[in-house]
């Protein structure tokens, strides 16, 4: 769904007319439920120092002879336009209905019942973020530390699905179990399964947090196939050089069909005053039919943030919470650095059977990507955020078209910027 400039302008004007506060906008009390409205609008800009591939290319008509109609080495587009209704009550019931008008999909759409006054003890039915997602994904999108989420979050984790979830815990720990099916939006992710997550914060004081956690997900593959791929740390790019392609789908061969996927995740968080160190690891195992070797891939990231203006972080439901600026006029300034890696190689190359034949690939060689991201964030007042990132990406993938045992490298550098308004 494409938003016209006039539609977006009206939406922004309506939001700007609301009181300038970080909290949601109260609407009314309907059926003993306190209804409120939230929103998030993000606009991104990427500039590419292209290496092998043209990541600024587009394929929109009327250009029919080239994939790069505009010839530009940059992309600019609305990234998100999220509109969310929330309700509290009657009693211990809470509900949410969210929709992303940019991506034309439902977000959280569920109803929750809390047991007593414990916000960490509840049962939830509908669409929600799965416990098998990363801690980064479970955190609020508006407070992401970098323009692009990590490669394991975007490529391996299981995000929103329809299901039922039970959570039991307290302010310092929690255990979550979820059974899920397809995504609510038509023609999106499918494959039923279950997810588990547990976390513990033995240190949870103002300005001092230490958290560890782990998750496990097991799910069916969609139509007996799965395709794993990773963008070069730029969310709006359509080309993904790191890609298992048809190697794990029946499109390549019925013998390549996949049965089930299991994912294991580990997470850690440390906060001391204005500094935050965060790391996550994820491994994926794909069970395949027949005698073919199962596939295994993994990835991780390590990031550090410094709140230059001195603010610290909060902690809620096993995730960090970014606080409001202590001086709204100056805002909250952050400096961040992240190392990220993903490896979708699980195989080897054998010599060709004949002198003129092609090398033989045993297993799956989807490629490997490493990246460094340096970022500056500015939270201004209660509703605005501006981000600027420099990303250095190194990718390598085997290509049998260029000879035996040769990896082809593609190493773009990217400048990324984001303007964000939320209420």
Percent helix, as a range, is: under 10%
Here the CATH topology equals: Porin
Instruction: Assign the structural class, choosing from mainly alpha, mainly beta, alpha/beta, alpha+beta, or little secondary structure.
Output: mainly beta
How many alpha or pi helices?
3
**Poorly predicted residue ranges:** 1-21
Question: So, CATH architecture?
Answer: Beta Barrel
Count of distinct strands: 22
Distance between the termini: 22 Å
Radius of gyration: 22 Å
What quaternary form is this? single chain
Shape: globular
Spatial sequence of strands, sheet with the most strands? 2-3-4-5-6-7-8-9-10-13-14-15-18-19-20-22
Q: How many separate structural domains?
A: 1
Most strands sheet: 16 strands, antiparallel, barrel
CATH top-level class = Mainly Beta
* Share of β-strand residues: over 45%
The average pLDDT value, as a whole number, equals 87
Give the SSE order as H and E letters.
HEEEEEEHHEEEEEEEEEEEEEEEE
Q: What is the name of the CATH superfamily?
A: Porin
Please give a quick description of this structure.
Pfam families: Porin_O_P. The chain is mostly beta strands. It has helices at residues 5-16, 135-138, 151-155, and strands spanning 25-30, 33-49, 74-88, 93-100, 105-114, 122-129, 160-169, 173-180, 193-205, 208-220, 229-230, 242-243, 258-272, 275-288, 295-307, 313-316, 319-322, 332-350, 360-380, 384-398, 407-410, 413-422.
């Amino acid at each position: 769904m494409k938003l016209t400039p006039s539609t977006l302008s009206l939406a922004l004007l309506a939001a700007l007319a609301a009181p300038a506060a970080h909290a949601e906008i109260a609407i009314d009390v309907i059926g003993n439920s306190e209804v409120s409205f939230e929103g998030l609008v993000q606009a991104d800009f990427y500039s590419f120092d292209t290496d092998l591939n043209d990541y600024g290319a587009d394929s929109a008509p009327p250009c029919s002879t080239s994939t790069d109609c505009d010839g530009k080495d940059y992309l600019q587009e609305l990234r998100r336009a999220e509109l969310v209704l929330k309700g509290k009550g009657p009693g211990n019931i809470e509900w949410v209905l969210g929709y992303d008008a940019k991506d034309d999909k439902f977000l959280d759409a569920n109803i929750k019942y809390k047991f007593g006054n414990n916000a960490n003890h509840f049962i939830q039915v509908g669409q929600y973020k799965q416990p098998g997602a990363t801690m980064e994904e479970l955190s609020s999108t508006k407070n992401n530390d970098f323009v692009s989420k990590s490669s394991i979050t975007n490529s391996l984790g299981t995000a929103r699905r329809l299901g039922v979830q039970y959570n039991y815990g307290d302010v310092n720990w929690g255990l979550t179990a979820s059974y899920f099916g397809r995504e609510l939006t038509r023609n999106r992710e499918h494959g039923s399964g279950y997810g588990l997550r547990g976390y513990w914060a033995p240190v949870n004081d103002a300005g001092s947090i230490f958290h560890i956690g782990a998750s496990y997900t097991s799910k069916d593959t969609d139509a007996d196939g799965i395709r794993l791929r990773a963008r070069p740390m730029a969310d709006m790019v359509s080309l993904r050089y790191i890609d298992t392609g048809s190697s794990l789908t029946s499109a390549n061969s019925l013998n390549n069909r996949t049965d089930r996927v299991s994912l294991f995740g580990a997470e850690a968080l440390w906060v001391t005053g204005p500094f935050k160190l965060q790391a996550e690891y994820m491994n994926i195992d794909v069970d395949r039919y027949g005698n073919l070797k199962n596939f295994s891939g993994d990835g991780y990231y390590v990031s550090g943030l410094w709140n230059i203006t001195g603010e610290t972080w909060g902690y809620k439901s096993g995730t960090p919470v970014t606080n409001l600026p202590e001086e709204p006029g100056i805002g909250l300034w952050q400096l961040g650095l992240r190392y990220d890696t993903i490896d979708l190689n699980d195989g080897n190359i054998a010599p060709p059977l004949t002198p003129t034949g092609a090398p033989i690939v045993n297993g799956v060689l989807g490629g490997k990507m490493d990246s460094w991201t340096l970022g500056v964030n500015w939270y201004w007042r209660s509703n605005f955020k501006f981000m600027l990132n420099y990303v250095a990406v190194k990718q390598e993938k085997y290509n049998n078209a260029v000879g035996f045992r040769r990896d082809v490298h593609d190493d773009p550098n990217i400048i990324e910027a984001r303007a964000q308004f939320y209420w």
